[in-house]
Amino acid sequence: MATFSILEHPLHGPRAVKQGWSWPAFFFGVFWALYKRIWMLAACLFGFIVLSSMLIPATMEGQLISNVLFLGLNLTISLKGNQWYASLLETQGYQYQMQVEARNPNEALARSAEQKAAMAKDAIQGSFRDDDQRTEHDDNDHDNDQNGGGNAGGSKSTGTFVG
Question: Which of 48, 111, 40 is closest to 81 using CA atoms?
């Protein structure tokens, strides 16, 4: 199971972003960035590809250097890509809601909806319990007022009666 961050936008709804390693980012790099609409990353990757093809000689050593550079670049994108995507969503007005364990983004969204419903139910039941406790407390105060004004005169008082 993977860990997902749930981010929610007031108009666009929730999104699930996987935390950690991204296989699609590792294998597809620029295309993954374009799909996720991380335009600046896509432009940087494309620029890197163009510059490396122009500056690195087409020799065996050049190919080795190019392969090592691209492997390092893909490893970086794979490790940081989901984090960059979550940051992009936050700049677009999405707010972090929670973290859930799931097998895929759809399951993560379903689990977060279940957790939200459970929290809302608990909050509603908690407010009813608070109302019941306040009603019992108010009834006890009313009984004390009828039995001689609370703690004064002969009831269980810890203070000194001056009278």
Answer: 40
153 neighbors 161 (Cβ within 8 angstroms): yes
Q: Is the pLDDT score of 156 beyond 60?
A: no
In DSSP terms, which residues pair with 96 in a beta bridge? 7
Q: How far is CA 156 from the centre of its chain?
A: 53
Q: How are the residues of the chain apportioned to helix, strand and coil, as percentages rounded to the nearest 5?
A: 65, 15, 25
Q: 116 is written with which tokens?
A: 């939200």
What's the whole-model pTM score? Answer: 0.69
> How many C-beta atoms surround the C-beta of residue 30 within 10 A?
17
What would the two tokens of residue 126 be? Answer: 């908690």
The tens digit of pLDDT for each residue in 81-102 reads: 999 999 999 999 999 999 999 9
Is the model's pLDDT at 80 over the cut of 80?
Answer: yes
Q: Which two tokens stand for residue 58?
A: 């087409």
